Amino acid sequence: MDKNKSDKLAIANKELAFQNEEKGKRAAELRNAKKELAFQNEEKENRAGELVIANKELAFQNDEKENRASELVIANKEIAFQNDEKENRASELVLANIELAFQNDEKGNRQAELIIANIELAYQNDEKEKRATDLIILSGDLKAQQEELKRANDLLIKQEEKVRIINQELWELNQELEERVGKRTKALA
Question: Rounded CA gap, 103 and 107, in Å?
Answer without folding.
Answer: 6
